[in-house]
Amino acid sequence: MKEFLKYTMATVVGIILASIIVTVISIISLAGMVATEGASSSIPKNSVLRIKLQGEIVERAGEGSPMDILNQDEDATIGLDQALDALKKAAKSDKVKGIYLEAGSLAAYPADLQELRRALLDFKESGKWIVAYGDDYTRGAYYLCSVADEVFLNPSGMIDWNGMSSQPIFYTGLLKKVGVKMQVFKVGTYKSAVEPFINTEMSDANREQVQSYLGSIWNGMLRDVAKSRKLKVEALNAMADSTLLLSDADVFVEKKLADKLCYMSDVKEALRERLELDEDDDINFTTLADVASSDDLGKKVDDEIAVYYAYGEINDARAKGFNQEHSITTKETLTDLQKLRKDDDVKAVVIRVNSPGGSAYASEQIWHEIQLLRAEKPVVISMGAMAASGGYYISCGANEIFAEPMTLTGSIGIFGMIPDASELLTEKLGLSFDVVKTNAMSDFGAMGRPFNANESAKLQSYINRGYELFTGRVAGGRGMAQDSVKAIAEGRVWTGEQAQKIGLVDKLGNLDDAVEAAAKLAEIEDYTVGRYPSPTPWYMTLLDKESGDYMEGQMRAALGEYYPAFSLLKRVGQMNPVQARMPFDPNIK
């Protein structure tokens, strides 16, 4: 009987393991077929590129999670890289006649919106049309849709044009309730990343910098929309002050924010007229993914300009478990940059930086590797939504720096933040601590007590040295005196437009502008653009025990705008205690 049970259990376990292996292999095989079919899509003639402005704009298009594929959730994100590629190809394709922008609830940083909007304007330069429709337009969606030849609004719809705000969340009261205090060591009057953990409201310096960069971004939006809609900036600003959001829909037409009130069926009729179709003819809609994966119109040559995407927080190592987001990690980034340095076909490298910063130590290591790369071939930085603090640290040593006018950058400062849980442990949990030590600082960082005066002084000195190193790196990279760097540093966040005026950025421009500059520095005219690193296919995350992409996606979808606040509490505990980063969540609305 004992042997029977043993063999029976072994058989059952074998069947289960075999089923798991077969399932994984089947999914990978299916993914391979999907990838093969999507390698080069066929766009129907007389097509309209439909762009659904929903979800959020991310730096790169992924292949989604398994559940996204099964649910056909194509609107969860817009990959900026894919969208820019698709718009360039659509402008040149004789099969794509125009673009239909379908407005929805879109979340994106201002610089991402600006880059995508510029690509839409470039599309219009080809002589083709853009039509926009929405039941409700968020500010970001309207900013994009304002480029359209016609902006349609549902008769019961609305347009959010109420200006901008930043509403940081403060955790100090919560920490106090659980008996935890944050011990903070920093350099930089404007270095406000620590404020949510030690204050209950914004400091005067932080309020000053936020007001400054929000004003810069909003003024840029006003100028862009005013030009497209043929309105005055002052009129648009007055509309924002009048709580236009709650007006009747016909007021948006009267104010010239929209051209016509209509329903979806009416919009489709307008599209048929532009396509010269009969009433019963179907409209051939195509997607960003289909157009981006269509045959490349450019020729292939051996010389290559490599675009390396560095986006997310800068970490010493990859975060484990759920609530992780894409990050710039030391080991992977150094390995990737070393490969590009040794690749003889790569004549120049454009590093696309979209990062709020992170670990000061990791930032220094990546900065050093970029200097080794620059010693052998030109390096140009293209700043995305943000390249601040550690994001600026890794950027400052490049040959040239490009930023969007609305990019958040600068924040040259450093801080250390270490929790003191002594009250939680001793008073609330009733624990007691004692110590025997051989030297004065043998119990440095011990549980059960805060840092003493001597320890605090040494930690502050360590942070000060980090700030000297950071500002020295900036001074060397930008050709400035270190004192001049310190005068504009102090942890202050600037927009790209502001940063150019004070010497932190060379030129205002997008990724294409940075690629052209890199080619000029490399003295090549014909080249292929390569993109690195290759995105990880979704089916590979099934085999990665550290991946929490699916669960994170579900949490993000459920919590919406509150997701960053909740995920932050977990990430703080995993971070290097010495950070070069901007505020944890700018919370721009």
Write the layout of secondary structure elements.
Blueprint: H1 2-37, E1 47-58, H2 66-71, E2 77-79, H3 80-92, E3 96-107, H4 110-124, E4 129-137, H5 139-145, E5 150-159, H6 172-178, E6 181-187, H7 195-198, H8 204-229, H9 233-241, H10 249-254, E7 260-261, H11 264-275, E8 284-286, H12 288-292, E9 304-311, E10 313-315, E11 327-329, H13 330-342, E12 346-355, E13 357-359, H14 360-374, E14 379-388, H15 390-393, E15 400-403, E16 408-410, E17 414-420, H16 422-428, H17 453-478, H18 482-488, E18 493-495, H19 496-501, E19 507-508, H20 511-522, E20 528-532, H21 538-541, H22 549-559, H23 563-574, E21 578-581
Parallel strand pairs: 1-2, 1-3, 1-8, 3-4, 4-5, 5-7, 9-12, 9-20, 10-11, 12-14, 14-15, 14-16, 15-19
Antiparallel strand pairs: 6-17, 13-21, 16-18, 17-21
Helix pairs in contact: 3-4, 4-5, 13-14, 17-18
Write down how many β-strands occur, each being a DSSP E stretch of 2 or more residues.
21
If you consult CATH, what is the topology of the domain at 304-418 and 479-581?
Answer: 2-enoyl-CoA Hydratase, Chain A, domain 1
- Radius of gyration from CA coordinates: 26 Å
For the record, give the distance between the C-alpha atoms at the N and C termini, rounded to a whole number: 69 Å
Mind telling me the CATH class of the domain at 304-418 and 479-581? Answer: Alpha Beta
Major sheet, described briefly? 8 strands, mixed
Low-confidence segments, ≥5 residues, pLDDT <50? 4-8, 28-40, 63-72, 320-324
Proportion of residues in β-strands? 15-25%
Corresponding CATH superfamily of the domain at 304-418 and 479-581: 2-enoyl-CoA Hydratase, Chain A, domain 1
The helix content is: 40-55%
Apparent shape? globular
**What is the CATH architecture descriptor of the domain at 304-418 and 479-581?**
Alpha-Beta Complex
What value does the average pLDDT take? 85
